[in-house]
Amino acid sequence: AQSVTQLDSQVPVFEEAPVELRCNYSSSVSVYLFWYVQYPNQGLQLLLKYLSGSTLVKGINGFEAEFNKSQTSFHLRKPSVHISDTAEYFCAVNRANTGNQFYFGTGTSLTVIP
Amino acid sequence: EPEVTQTPSHQVTQMGQEVILRCVPISNHLYFYWYRQILGQKVEFLVSFYNNEISEKSEIFDDQFSVERPDGSNFTLKIRSTKLEDSAMYFCASRARQGGSEKLFFGSGTQLSVL
Q1: What is the CATH topology of the domain spanning B5-96+107-114?
Q2: Cβ within 8 Å of residue A63, ≥6 positions away
């Protein structure tokens, strides 16, 4: 089975400051990794995903994430946050190639302070 | 971008009552899912559905739950006799094809409150 841990439940950060949201996973098989964002009163939207290849993946809204196999991590970063980035961020894994079920972390609430 | 639509956005019910949560997946998608998120907890998988039958379900999805695709466009989740612990945000999702790399599209959720 797969599992995902997001260590930080809440991350406050000042506008234009950098941010990193941490995600660690465990799995006995190859997985794909995802970050989803949930804005207030909306559904989950895909930010970015890692399937294979380059370990640094770029997503929408200036976010990027780096896959680190040895540390089983997939941390999300943005060099300069905006007020509109305030949202809940979820890391998720899915078994590579055949995976049907997504396993989500508990989410990290990012609050950008003006 | 195409959207998954869920109705209602909020549902309040009394314990022991039946509720039906409705979803309209993206029209050419073949795989459908229900997830739920209890406040402050993980988004949890409930069930996946393909070719008019359940393809996978979690331990949460017990006999009180059922899913249906009654008319080729709607995808419903029924809870027969709601319990307090069923209070959660329920997300419907769909995707075009099987496989981990295929993008999952989520609806905006139905907040179910069981009193």
Answers
A1: Immunoglobulin-like (2.60.40)
A2: A35, A47, A48, A76, A77, A78
